[in-house]
Amino acid sequence: MRRLFPRDFRIAGTLLIALLSLTVSFSAQAAWPDNRTITFVVPFPPGGNTDLLGRIVANKLSASLGVTVVVENKPGAGSMIGSQAVAKAAPDGHTILMGSIANVINDSVYSKPLLNIRKDLIPVSQVVNVPNYIAANPKLPVNSLAEYIAYVKKNPGKSSCATSGIGTSPFVSCELFKRMAGLDLLVVPYQGGLPAMQDVMGGRVDIAVVNEALPYIRNKQLKGLAVTTATRSPYVPELPAIAESVPGYEVTSWYGVFLPAGTPKEIVDKLGAELQKVMRSDDVKKQIEPVGAVAVGSTPAEFQKFVNSELEKWDKVIKEMGIRLNN
Length: 327
Description:
This protein is α/β, with parallel strands linked by helices. It is built from 12 helices and 11 strands.
């Protein structure tokens, strides 16, 4: 057996240190930006589209970033409770928000929003677009949106519309529909789309405007009347756009990921790149199809520009509708 000399130990030690350094380097590249758990805040109750889409994105991000991503539901105040919690979190990339169009609507609807989306959050990536649906109780004696409009006009003040909460896209969708169609219609806000649909299916409310309705329309638990987008959805082309009966009408609901203000640019850019990769995945596209969602996956700069345009658009629309809420 060859005798080992001090020089051999020095070489072995150097190789071991190099190996350990390489291992640490690979680990650092795999983990986000360290190994701590990410809290992915969904500012709506479990069971709705925000929750479903948030969990799909969270599962993919967990695999992509190499850390555990835990979804935490923080509903309330039209998404402001959960959004405010993220805005106040440490800007270290470990607390992120599944934001939505509600974030820009709240900025104009409420006299004192719980957060300032322009200053308190950083847009990272728009993940999906999805239409809202007008869905009726199957026993309601109408079979089209035009028939429903005629029905309400014959029965003013007797029909009601369930939505997923004050300040949300469905809430504004119903208010806008009511005003543009000239209807005497009661708009009823719920704590999420699922309880809104449950009351429509139970016959306590005539219609719901929600973005979770597609599976219920497909299985005949609800009667689909229209979509709120400018054109028909490729997933349900048989449903007309509201604009076909009410010219000029359009509301497109969207979801996107935000980080707290002050988060370093390298973290924002890395998360944005991962989300673009996630939303290009065929697996994700397959998972979001049942709710009628269309994948986007924009860059932080693209999403910032989009959010700015949405703030301008909805501020004008909400002022024209005269909606202002005190909180």
